[in-house]
Each structure stands twice: as C-alpha cells, then as structure tokens.
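name: query_chain
kind: protein
chains: 1
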Amino acid sequence: MSDGYFITGTDTECGKTEITLALMHLLKARGQSVLGMKPVASGAEPTAEGLRNADALRIQNEASFTIDYDLVNPYAFQPPIAPHLAAEQAGQQIELQQIHQIYQQLGQKADQVLVEGVGGWRVPLNDQAAVSDLACLLDLPVILVVGLKLGCINHALLSVEAILASGLPLAGWVANLADPQMLESDANLNSLKQRIPAPMLGYVPRLTGVTPSGIARYLEL
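structure:
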C-alpha cells in the first residue's frame, strides 16, 4: 500500500487544487511515483466521455502515469453547488466505501496517492457523512491549505481544531495568498504560525502563469 496525504482547505477557492498539483510535482521530482484523486467534484462540464471537472483533469494529467478519469473523480456533478445537494439533484448517493476501494486500487500502483477534498473539512457528502469522514476512512495525514483573505484566521484555527479532534495527524499547512489586497498579510501569517501546532509547509504568493513546478518551489514536504 502506498503512502499519501489528504489535502483539505479552509473553504472553497482557497487553492487546494494548485497545492495538490504542486505537491504531486514535488514528490515526482524526488523519484516517487504519484497518483492523485479528487473523489467528489461539482461544477463539471458535459463531454462526449461524460461529465468532466477541470481540476480533476489537471490532477489526472499530473500523475506519474495515465489512469482512467473515473478513478481520479468517481463522483462528478454538473451544478457548482455543495456536493451532497448536487448528488441529490442527480439522483445519486456519494458512497465513501466506493471511494475507499478506488483509493486502495491506486495505492497498489503508486508510491504516493494524494487525495483532494471538496470545499472545507466539514462539507457534507451525504446525509450521514462529511469530507472529514472520508479523510478518516482513508486514514491519511492531512495537509490544510489556508487561503489568506479576510476571516482566514478563524477559518484556519477552527479547521485545525476539527482535524486534530478527528484523530488524524496534521502533517502541515500551506498559506496561499488568495486575496492580493489583503491587509497585514505578514501579521496574519505570524498569528497562524503561533497558533497552528504543525509545520508551515510553504507560503505561496499571488502568481501569474501558475504551474505545478512554479508553486512547488515555494513548498517543503
């Protein structure tokens, strides 16, 4: 079985996919074989092959070798809404055990499997389970992406408390400058460093022409 990480974030649009891609690049540069999953994705587009999510396609393309899209993103939904609501509209049920089985398949093929969550840590996936339950089922150390913007300290510290309460290890956190107009960004960053009991794996400034390799140079793992 492979090693891996579960990448979650303080909320949506905080940079989870960019950090996931960069971590995949970083691990590949160390000579490890790497696969990625985005098990649940809203905002997918219809194609001749079925619904496809842009972020999941990027994760598929960053892998060390080609695997079927359905293994990367087994649950894709067209409306860009909360996944449990999108699944309900589609007449589907997000089954955590199915995701776990696919993860185990991928774990037999690669040294590392990185799994990107959807939304934040407590986003519902069905009537009983949330993203946090999926992470616990997969039993992976967690990396938290903190989108630096107004309100991020509260979101980050609440997320850290919930992750630690789950019993999973918090492997580290990444600060991603989500709002370039954010005031006192250095002071906010220092506040987070003082209060999060896990290593900061990197600070990613606002970049143009973003690539996994370009972001990876700001990260340590």
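note: Residues 3-38+94-216 form a domain with the Rossmann fold fold (CATH 3.40.50.300).
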